[in-house]
Amino acid sequence: MNIIEVKNLSKSFSDFKAVEDISFSVAKGEIFAFLGPNGAGKSTTIKMLTTLSKPTSGEITLNGFNPVKNADAVRHSFGIVFQDPSLDDELTAYENMEFHGVLYGVPKVLRRQRIEELMKFVELWDRKNSLVKEFSGGMKRRLEIARGLLHHPKILFLDEPTLGLDPQTRNHMWNYLSELNKTEGITVFFTTHYMEEADKIAQRIAIIDHGKIIALGTSAELKAKTGKATLEEAFLSLTGKVIREEEAGPLDMLRMGRRMWRGGGRK
Amino acid sequence: MKTIYILWLRQIKRYLRSKSRIVGSLVQPMLFLVALGFGLGPVFQKAGQGNYVEFLVPGIIGMGIIFTSIFSGMEIIWDRQFGFLKETLVAPVTRLNIMVGRTLGGATVATSQGIIILLMSLVVGFRLSNWLLAIPAVVIMFLTAFLFTALGTAIASKIDDMQGFQLIVNFLIMPLFFLSGALFPLNNLPKSISIIANLDPLTYGIDALRYFLAGAGANHFGVGIDIVVLTSVTLLFLGVGSYLFNKIQI
Question: Nearest residue of A to residue B26 by CA position?
Answer without folding.
Answer: A266
